Amino acid sequence: xxxxxxxxxxxxxxxxxxxxxxxxxxxxxxxxxxxxxxxxxxxxxxxxxxxxxxxxxxxxxxxxxxxxxxxxxxxxxxxxxxxxxxxxxxxxxxxxxxxxxxxxxxxxxxxxxxxxxxxxxxxxxxxxxxxxxxxxxxxxxxxxxxxxxxxxxxxxxxxxxxxxxxxxxxxxxxxxxxxxxxxxxxxxxxxxxxxxxxxxxxxxxxxxxxxxxxxxxxxxxxxxxxxxxxxxxxxxxxxxxxxxxxxxxxxxxxxxxxxxxxxxxxxxxxxxxxxxxxxxxxxxxxxxxxxxxxxxxxxxxxxxxxxxxxxxxxxxxxxxxxxxxxxxxxxxxxxx
Length: 336
Ligand SMILES: [Zn+2]
Ligand SMILES: [Zn+2]
Description:
single chain, alpha/beta, Metallo-beta-lactamase, Chain A, seven-stranded mixed β-sheet, 12 helices, binds zinc ion
């Protein structure tokens, strides 16, 4: 049975289509009810971030907590960091862009409107982290101020040119007819191959990539993001990584993938071997957290294999006494 944590993705999916109110059960702790109004089909344009966006504290929105396994309640991996009116995505698994639209209205974050999202950083190029690259790059591309900027491991440029080829018919249809096209170059993606090190510095925002150990899938990266008011590390997919332990020392938020120790045992010997090489078990993660001591450990990209999702929290908490939660899609930090 699914956990009782709130499930906004499914509820909203059946609600969109008109100006309406939707009610959600808001979290397992209080079960408080609240209502939000979601606008339908609103075209949003923006020359630059507003004053209030520039002054807002950094926020982190979890757009997807899932894995390659289809899940009605979890989009593919994606975490958004919103800083001074720009949204920086870390991975873009299937459904992430849909969740960005929901989060844009649920949390009033204009830069999460898909055609306003400036940047995406891919930890590695497994499809559960990249399936929404096309959605992100080409949703209403003709209204983009600038094409999407993408960073990723070797292979990112090949994927970007593949997306361009896939959407070339759309581009020809829209630019060759009556449709007004605000930016005829809005579809162009700038793809950059990354190495470990600092990828982007903007004002007080620093985004750094570091190598992790995703078994025989390499290169694979984790990310460290620091701003004037928060520090966080995003693991991407990795086995226990000494580099990550070092980068995550004392960060405010550590988003880390996990495979349930009990869940792992449900797998065939071949898959156990693969997962042990490529992912971090709950016990390994607890050991890692005991050394890194993040302010909050946030589990995402959980592999459960039929065990109760909450069991993975018990497995971690049995060894790690710090604060730890299991993320749901659309979780936000700080909450308000
Ligand atoms: Zn993955
Ligand atoms: Zn992977």
